[in-house]
Amino acid sequence: MSPSSPQQFWRALRGWWREQAREKGAGGTTSPLIRNLWAFVRESTPERRRQRYGDMEYDWEHRVNTTSGTVDWRARLLGLFHSPYQPTDPALFQEMMASLPIEFDHFTFVDLGSGKGRTLLMASEYPFRRIVGVELIAELHRAAEENIRVYRRLTQRCVQIEAVCADACEFVFPETPLVLYLFNPLPEAGLRRVLRNLEQSLEQSPRPVWIVYHNPAMDSVLATSRALGSTGGTEQYSVFKNL
Ligand SMILES: C[S@@+](CC[C@H](N)C(=O)[O-])C[C@H]1O[C@@H](n2cnc3c(N)ncnc32)[C@H](O)[C@@H]1O
Question: In terms of pTM, does the model score above 0.85?
Answer without folding.
Answer: yes
